[in-house]
Amino acid sequence: MVQAVHTSSYKETQSTPMYAGESAGYVFEFKDDYTLYHSGDTALMSDMKLIQDVYQPEIAILSSSGHFTMGPTEAAYAVENLLDVKYVIPSHTFPSEETATSPDTLNALLEQFPVVENMIAKDHELERLLDKYPHTEVSVIGYGEERAFVKSKKPNA
To answer: Which run of H or of E encompasses 137?
Structure first.
């Protein structure tokens, strides 16, 4: 468990907000495989550099919706200046009506939580911002999709 910078509450729309605990990110270290950093819902923070230096993640899942978390600009900055990852997966974003697996479900969600509209397609904005950055591949993963990241084995010396 690692530092994240984010408020955590609920019932904001019904009454006085209720405290819901501390925010956190996680580093997952797998034997003979990639190390993964999941930022959780966080703002841009210099601790990302410490996480890189200590754990050397090769994959990062970064919040990038820009609403309650980092936006695509801040996530791109983190990738270019604080992290040294091979892959970045944008999170805390939502599909557009054209890319949603169920446009009806998306529309129902938007009706209940209009704020979600501000988080639509931000994953593709991060992809655009890092398009010419040669060190990191942006992996946009849609709802229900899976992606395997296979680390090539080093030849025996």
So the answer is: strand 137-138
- The Cα–Cα gap between 137 and 4 comes to 23
Sequential pLDDT tens for the chain (157 residues): 999 998 777 777 788 888 888 889 999 999 999 999 999 999 999 999 999 999 999 999 999 998 888 999 999 999 999 999 999 999 988 888 888 888 999 999 999 888 889 999 999 999 999 999 999 999 999 878 899 999 887 665 4
As to burial, measured by CB atoms within 10 angstroms (0-12 exposed, 13-18 middle, 19+ buried), residue 29 is: exposed
Strand 18-19 and strand 87-91: the pairing is: unpaired
* Number of folded domains that form the chain: 1
Whose tokens are 């996530």? That residue is 75
Domain presence at residue 90 = yes
Give the structural domain span for 97: 22-138
CATH code for the domain in which residue 89 is found? 3.60.15.10
State in Å, rounded, how far the first CA of the chain is from the last one: 35
Give CA 153 to chain center in angstroms.
Answer: 27
Question: In the 8-state DSSP scheme, what is residue 103?
Answer: H
